[in-house]
Amino acid sequence: MKRYLCIVLMLLSFSFIFSIDFPVGGDYAFRLTNPELLSGAGSSAGGGFYTSGPSSIINNPALTANDQRIMLNLGYTALFNTGDDARFGSGVQLAMLVPSRWGVFTGALDGIFCDVGKLNYGNIVHLRGGFSKDITDRLYAGFAVGAGMRWDEKTDWSLALDLGFVYHWGSLGFLEDTRIAGTLTALGKPYKVGMPSIAIPKVGIAATLFSVADNKIAGGFSADLSFPMFMNMVVDAGLQLRIANIVTVKTGWQLDVRDTANKDYNLLPSVGITVRFGINTKENQFMLDNGWQQSEITTSGAWQNLYEGVHAVSAGAAINLGLRDTEAPKIILWDEE
């Protein structure tokens, strides 16, 4: 079944390959729906401190394979310019992650409503569903299927398959928690405006650079190379600083060779911050019955100056229901008498 699906998606790809265009930043437009994506440098390996959640399937559908808790995520981004032709656009995301005994299921609903400056994306509503699983303790794999509608003067549609893996290498010289990842995304029919390009292979690495003060202060990095449609090259790099395992400051930078050659580029990086804190709902019987009396909320914000004075200001929140299980299983070989 999977083989036939891949064949159909490839045929759809070739039928549109000669009719598409490539809008500025179109390959990575869905990063504009969530602050974690905007400031995370599109890391396919999870960033310096391995951040995963329902929104991360946009970068790599395998990242969620080890998540143990139900997670809800909401993000919003305002897109605007301040020139003579001032305009306003929006990006929004609602996503959910549900772990199970078979693997981790993820769904994300994205909306982009933007015709600001050179970001001529139109109006898009896109639904993406993913599945991931840990093949071994070190190797994670996953896939996602996305479909959506786009409209402005005309109506268009998209259908695509994403594949990905993450390998936890461990220590690599002075690098700790090193991860290597690869993805092959956008296998299918893109929107006719060229969002995204057909077939985007990507490789990435991420790791912890240093930790001091009993791991209360740590730094991490990520670096990725992608080759949209095998006709372009995009470099993504990110740095993260974590304080007391509560506050994380992030910055991401991207260089798109095709956009740069067309003089559509901006060398300013994105900046973002996340703050994580716990909540206690012991008095709520529903939360107590489901074991969610202690949960975590992560709030985040990000900003980036995009092309020709277009600004992106993003905010979001995610909630992890319950606490992560950190105890190893107890194995009893025989009963004590």
Provide structural commentary.
The protein is mainly beta and 337 residues long. It is 9% helix and 52% strand. The chain has four helices and 14 strands. The protein has helices at residues 2-16, 35-39, 257-261, 285-289, and strands spanning 71-81, 88-99, 104-116, 119-134, 139-151, 155-172, 175-189, 200-212, 217-226, 234-243, 247-256, 270-280, 294-305, 310-320. The chain has a 14-stranded antiparallel β-barrel. A hairpin with a 3-residue loop joins strand 10 and strand 11 (247-256). It starts with a helix and ends in a 17-residue tail after the last strand. 42% of the residues are buried. Residues 11-18 have low confidence and may be disordered.
Short description:
With 337 residues, the chain is mainly beta.
Attribute tags:
14 strands, 337 residues
Quaternary:
single chain
Fraction of residues in helix: under 10%
Nearest-angstrom radius of gyration? 20 Å
- Indicate the mean pLDDT: 87
Proportion of residues in extended strands = over 45%
Low-confidence stretches: 11-18
Quick one: how many beta strands?
14
The secondary structure category is: mainly beta
> Main β-sheet, in a few words?
14 strands, antiparallel, barrel
Number of helices: 4
Q: Helices and strands, in N-to-C order?
A: HHEEEEEEEEEEEHEHEE
Distance between the termini: 53 Å
Q: Assign an overall shape.
A: globular
Q: Strands of the biggest beta sheet: in what spatial order?
A: 1-2-3-4-5-6-7-8-9-10-11-12-13-14
